[in-house]
Design goal:
The structure is a single chain. About 45% of the residues lie in helices and about 25% in strands. It is an alpha/beta fold and about 150 residues long. A hairpin with a 3-residue loop joins strand 1 and strand 2 (about 10-20). The longest helix has 19 residues, at about 120-140.
Length: about 150
């Protein structure tokens, strides 16, 4: 079994998957859609990846504000998570994603990736950072599953 990490955005979903030992996260791809409310193909692609990588659990980044308040994106993310859980039958863990996009951008800057190319990778890297944070937490807590909505 592997765990999938998702960074849900208005027009993209960054996708990452763990290794089979649940130690490391690798960015897989960015699923793009033309309109925010058009999610059928996005969900279908996620299902394909779940089958291909034998995923048993999904971690979905929850985009809280820095002061921990919740805005419209949090509600849209929760709705997407519920839809994903119903469609796949897998547990969807909501995981605090504050600073992951900034961390992804910083990592790319340090790697020398030019600013205009960063948008091609940022969501996939953010998904990997979300998933890695969850994997690290899970290992430290003895494999317990919990949401970091807090």
């Amino acid at each position: 079994m592997r765990i999938m990490g998702l960074d849900f955005g208005s027009k993209t979903v960054g996708v990452a998957v763990s290794d089979s030992l649940l130690i490391t996260a690798q960015g897989l791809e960015i699923i793009r859609r033309k309109e925010e409310n058009k999610q059928r193909r996005t969900l279908a692609r996620i299902e394909e990846l779940i089958d291909e990588y034998e995923v048993g659990e999904i971690v979905l980044g929850l985009p809280k504000h820095m002061n921990a308040s919740e805005g419209e994106r949090v509600e849209l993310t929760r709705e997407f998570g519920e839809r994903l859980e119903r469609r796949t039958g897998l547990p969807v863990i909501l995981w605090d994603e504050r600073l992951t996009t900034a961390a992804a951008d910083k990592a790319m800057m340090e790697a020398g990736i030019r600013r205009e190319k960063r948008k091609d990778f940022v969501d996939k890297i953010a998904a990997a950072l979300i998933l890695q944070g969850y994997l690290d937490h899970r290992r430290m807590c003895g494999g317990e599953q919990e949401s970091s909505e807090g």
